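Sequence in, structure out. Go.
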Amino acid sequence: MIRLKIAIRNITRHKLRSILSLGMIAGAVTSMIIFRGFSQYSLDSLKIIAAENQFGHMQIGKEKYWAPGAESRKSRMFNLKEIEQLKKNHPYIENISGRLSFFGLVSNGDLSIGGKIIGIDTINEPKFAKSMAIMSGAFFSSSDSHEAMIGTLLAKQMNVKTGDSITVLTNTIDGVMNAMDLVVGGIFSAGIDEIDAQVIFLPLITSQKILDTEDVDVGVVRFKALEQSEAHANDILKDVTNISRELTKKTWRELAVLYRQVEKFYGVQNKIIEAILFALMFLGILNTVSMTVVERTGEIGTLRALGESRGDIVKQFLLESFILSIVGLILGVAISVLLIKLIHTAHIMTEMPGASIPFQIQILFLYSAVLYSSILAVSTALFATLIPAIRASKMDIVDALRKNI
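Output:
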């Protein structure tokens, strides 16, 4: 208790230095919470786009579909009925739906542009429409309608709007040229340039009619919870290979290249920023404590003459540093909460590389970031204090006492 009182007295005695140390600790903690909260929000947004829209939770298909060679298009497809038993074997699977994609020419009568057409099972993927922004029009009116959902950038290139007619031209799986007239039922934005600039969604049945087949490229598996896609991946792979040696599975994370790239980028970026912040904090506290040791040389000599051990001197400095760290942490967390609210209130818009539309900056308040920054801040502060504290404890008592004369 006495040591605590002495520590508080020493902290309040050097107000300017204490405020400087608190500012460094609070600033480092606040920055870490803000950076980690922003990067996590960005990753969560990309995860929704990838897992709920672009790929689904998991895809099942033939290995040669993802790594095509000289084989025919027909040999890369399969009938969805082959994997229907998976839902019975795994109760955590919500539904299994088929997708069929192909490249073709899309024409509005005056202009023809190459696009990627993807057939969606609107019955077994009821959440698909909710995973993207419908800019105009509406999703398919029925599971076999001759309607198309066009990406915003592609619609702009073709100069088409809701209600306009377009024609899709491609080869069937047997190599016969086929075309179909469609109506633009709606214009969507998935938020990614790659999708919005080239993708057209059709009902699965309609795309099967165009290609003259009842097969699909992949079966999209949706789980009751997204986390289950990776947790049960090995069990499902075992069942899938038992059904057919040609079939395999791909989780959304394996398919989402952009998500993995951004995740890796943020991981490296955050580590670099954290290293810089805590290096500055370390040097600042090291300098501050070193100056304090010089000013308190006489006091240290007196304490040693009264019987205090070297360890007691080190403990006293560490206790003062620990108290400053805790107060700095509290300030850092409070400031970060305030800043997050201010940023959300300001409605700041930004654009992410590869994104087709701007989005409002949102920052998640992560308890994991608070815990991580707390451990790092306290450890850094104590380590920075330990070096000059050990040097102070090794002072010659007589030399230190001369400072009081």
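Check: The CA atoms of residues 150 and 200 lie 5 Å apart. The chain has a mean pLDDT of 85.
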